[in-house]
Structures are given as structure tokens and as C-alpha cells.
Amino acid sequence: MIINTICIFLVSCGLIFFIGGAVGIIRFPDFYTRMHAAGKGDTCSMILILTGLSLYILHEPTTANFLVVGKILFIALFIMSTSPTSTHALIKAGFEEGIKMWKREDEKEGQE
Amino acid sequence: MKIIGFITVIITALLLLQAERDFPNWGDPESPASSYRLSQHYITETYHETVVPNMVTAVLADYRGYDTLFETVVIFTAGIAIIGILRVFGGNQAEHKEPQLTKQKPDLILQTTCRLLLPIIQLFALYVVAHGHHSPGGGFQGGVIFGASFILLALCHDLKYAQKWVPERRILNLAGFGVLLYAGFGVAALMFGENFLDYGILTHLLPGSIEEARSHSMLGVEIGVGFTVTAIMFSIYSLLSSNGKMKEGI
């Protein structure tokens, strides 16, 4: 029962982060902030959801289920290392291509 | 011209939809594919004859070994054709002005992640090849994953760095070796007086009973497929990314 509650809490937290990431990709003004939303949201929410799922599987603590949990945790580990790296690589490539950063309207006027 | 294309598409779609009505329903037990006794034989007898739980692998590598052998040859030929078309040897390099890529310094974060992940990816590729008997997987899939690991290496460092491990010569050797390994299993069966690719007779060479010999030969065949696919995957990437010069690139 308690485990179920924790599972639901973790998975719904993950979904909220996912929604945040999706909204960020659409609403943020430029490339860098959009990548920020995508990278952060995906990493955090995937880890939360996967942790929730692995807890749910542990209802029946058999050997096979432990193996599945191990695999899920491995996936979480991979996402934790690859997703930020790919975001970093994309942003670095964009920065070296010289994509302009977004600025607020009043700051733009102040500079020009 | 656009209207002609549109009309052609519409007519083709109507014809296809018309033909689709003649298909049996999905999972229909009366359909030819389900009622033909060959499928019955595969479903009921595969495990007794080959000790391979995954029917797909058994059909792919044993019952229809010829098919897979020539699929591997097709991949080999495709790789050779791509090398033949794209590879540029010396000559008029000065005439072709390449778009100048901004020379980037090597990125520490990328390289560290690459170094962490690469062995795991390659280990997983080997697992996919070897575990094809029990779960989805096999030579083609594992080979693609293994080739992708080298592509990751080339992306995170550069092409030259990746070619320290898989130089052009070794790519070609590996691709040829894979096909030869596959065909070698067939020829070995011929040597013992059986049909080409009839693995059961290889029980004289491999440990275990006739059924286990078939299972082991399937593994060997899958390894051959894996070699070819790995080599061709990486050669396609390196040719495309370096404009056929195989020197630098992205």
C-alpha cells in the first residue's frame, strides 16, 4: 500500500517534469533555453518514472523481478549520463556556429 | 507535373486498397500462412530439432540459412558498392572546395562519456549477438549496435582517432571474413557429406548432440553476420562523413 503510494507519487512527479519540459520546448524563446528545458526535463522525469516503476515491480520480490529492477536501474544510469552529454554537445555546437542568444527587449535597446 | 504525380498516387492507393481486401484477416487460422503444414512444423518441432527457444532465430539461421547467407552477401555487396562510388583516391582534391568545418577542440565532457559508455555499448552488442537464441536479437542487430559504437567514437573524437581501431583495410577484411565465416559453416557441412548449410552433421566438430551442434552453428553464423554488418556500418559512416577521403571529417 505504502509502496503503491510512493510509486504513484514518483511517476506523477515524473510526468509533471515531462510536461514542464514539453511546455519549455514550445514556449522558450531561443535555442539554448529550449535545449535547457528538454535536457533537464527529460533526465529528471525519466529517472523519477523509472524509479517508480522499479519500486512497483518489487511487489513480488522474486529473483526474476530483481533482475528486471537491475535492468531498469541500468537504463536510468545510462540516461543520467547520456542525456546531459547530448544536450551539452548540441548546445556547444550551436554556440560555435554562432547562434544568437535571446535578450530581453529593454536590454537589447540598451546595447544598440 | 505535380497534378500527374498526385493522380498517380491516388490511383496506386486505390489499387492497393482494393488488393488489401483479398488479404486474410490478421491471425486467421484458415489463412494459407497458418494452415500450411510448414508453419506447423516450425512451431511444434523447432525446439526438438535445434534446442533454440527463439523460433525466429532458428528459422532465420538454420531452416532458411541460404536466405540469410545471401542477405549477408547483399550487405557486403552494398558496402563494396558504396566504397566504389564514394571513395576518392588522391587526384583532384584541390578542385573540390569542401565546406570548411570549424575546427573544434576535443571536448572533455563528450570524450569522458564516450569512454564510459563505449565498452558497455560493445558488451551489449555482443550480448545481443549471443543471446539471439533466447530473445530478439542476432547478428544483424548486434552488428548494427557494434558499428554504432565505433560511429560514436568517431563523433566524440574524430574519424582519424576511430580509424586507429578500425582502419580501412581492417574494415574490408572484417566484412569479407564475416561472409566467409558464414559460408565456411556451409562448406564444413559439405565436407562431412551433408547438404550445404546442414549444420546437424557438424556434431563431429562441435561438442554436444546433433541438436546442440545446430544451435552452436547458428551462433557461429550469427557472429559472421555481425562482423559484416559492423564493418559495413562503420565504412558507410566514415565515407559519408569525410566526402569519401577517409581522412578527416566530422
Short description:
The complex is a heterodimer of chains A (112) and B (250). Chain A is an all-alpha fold.
What shape does the CA trace of chain A take? elongated
Uncertain ranges of chain B: none
Q: Estimate what percentage of residues of chain A fall within beta strands.
A: under 5%
Number of helices of chain B: 10
Task: Summarize the SSE layout with pairings.
The complex is a heterodimer of chains A (112) and B (250).
Chain A: H1 2-27, H2 31-57, H3 63-97, H4 105-111
Helix pairs in contact in A: 1-2, 2-3
Chain B: H1 2-20, H2 32-35, H3 37-50, H4 55-63, H5 65-86, H6 108-130, H7 139-156, H8 159-162, H9 168-191, H10 210-241
Helix pairs in contact in B: 4-5, 4-10, 5-9, 5-10, 6-7, 7-10, 9-10
How does this model look, in words?
The complex is a heterodimer of chains A (112) and B (250). By secondary structure, chain A is mostly helical. Chain A has one domain (2-111). Helices cover 85% and strands 0% of the residues of chain A. Chain A has 4 helices and no strands. With 250 residues, chain B is an all-alpha fold. Chain B has one domain (53-88, 107-250). The model of chain B has no long low-confidence stretch (mean pLDDT 86). The A-B interface holds A 78, 81-82, 85, 88-89, 92, 96-97 and B 102, 104, 107, 109-110, 113, 116-117, 120.
Give a quick set of tags describing it.
A: 112 residues, mainly alpha, 4 helices, B: mainly alpha, 68% helix
